[in-house]
């Protein structure tokens, strides 16, 4: 095994030979939008993301679904949405498994490949690296508002478009001096960042005003439309965080917001930062931002420092 759960990696990686390692992952979610086709797209993009986060290429996917009886049309639409994203990723949908359940659930088991020497792990940043975030935060808050029928889908098309966008960054980006990478999902930005900087000699300095936020997410947070997972993330991970500036609580919770199909957090050499950002924006990640740096640990216990 080249990667497993020891460091909370995004996927398991197993070496086949000197040139090929397999990347294997599974994920499924409950509906976050009413439109079944779009839900299928988002769920599939979310599942495929873990292979991309390891620097891999998806090859095969299997559907995993739990669904109530009597709603076969909706199930067909969900699977069609998932199939579209699997094909967009260049992979093959090769069947799957279903169970009857009261609450719909859908996702994929995904098998991919990567060269053993090109695996990108989630916990290996280097001093001086820049941190780049490829998608804006706030999908957890917006999804909560959708489920509560506080807002309608036609008011949050930007968020839906980002959630359904694949994290399939190009070889041109992957060939830059990327030292570490992970996707931002259930633990939120600061939760996944804390997994990235387990090296006792490093810490992350984050410029909060540079972090991209989805339209409407902050306003909803101000109304206390916050998912339970985001609140839990703050309770768990805030002990690692030092705030060196006044921070609006509604803005702060966005840093812990539990994302669905969130963006990639990339730790890349400072010298490659501008090229990385330029390539990402050409590939549709137009909100990509440099949000901070990896530095040597100062004489303080916190691993994440928030500045303006």
Which range best describes the helical content: under 10%, 10-25%, 25-40%, 40-55%, 55-70% or over 70%?
A: 25-40%
Tell me how many strands there are.
Answer: 12
> What is the CATH superfamily label of the largest domain?
PurM-like C-terminal domain
Task: Output the CATH class name of the largest domain.
Answer: Alpha Beta
N-to-C CA distance: 41 Å
Please provide a written account of the structure.
It is a single chain. With 308 residues, the chain is of the alpha+beta class. It folds into 2 domains: 12-118, 2-Layer Sandwich (60s Ribosomal Protein L30, Chain: A); 130-307, Phosphoribosyl-aminoimidazole Synthetase, Chain A, domain 2 (Alpha-Beta Complex). Helix content is 31%, strand content 26%. Strands 7-10-6-11-8-12-9 form a 7-stranded mixed beta sheet, sandwiched between helices. A 5-stranded mixed beta sheet has the order 1-2-5-3-4, covered by helices on one side. Strand 1 and strand 2 (21-29) form a beta hairpin. Helix 1 packs parallel to helix 2 and helix 6 packs parallel to helix 8. The termini are far apart.
